[in-house]
Amino acid sequence: MEGTICMPSRYGRPIIMSRQMHARRLEGIDKNIWVEFTQLAADYQAVNLGQGFPDFAPPKFLQEAFCKAVSGGGLMHQYTRAFGHPSLVTILAQLFGRLVGHEIQPLEDVLVTIGAYQALFCTFQALVDEGDEVIIIEPFFDCYQPMVKMAGGKQVYMPLRPRGGSNLSSGDWVLCAEELASKFTAKTKAIVINTPNNPTGKVYKTEELQVIADLCIKHDVVCISDEVYEWLTYDGAKHVKIASLAGMWERTVTIGSAGKTFSATGLKVGWAIGPSRLIKHLKTVHQNSIYHCPTAAQVAVAEGFQTEYDRLGHPESYFQQLPTLFTHKRNKLAACLEIAGLRPTLPEGGYFMIADISSVSFDSDDSISQDEPLDYRFVKWLIKKKGLAAIPVSAFYSPEHGKEVQNYVRFCFTKEDSTLNAAEDIMKKWASEK
Ligand code: PMP
Ligand code: GLN
Question: Which residues belong to any copy of the Aminotransferase class I/classII large domain (predicted)?
Answer without folding.
Answer: 46-422
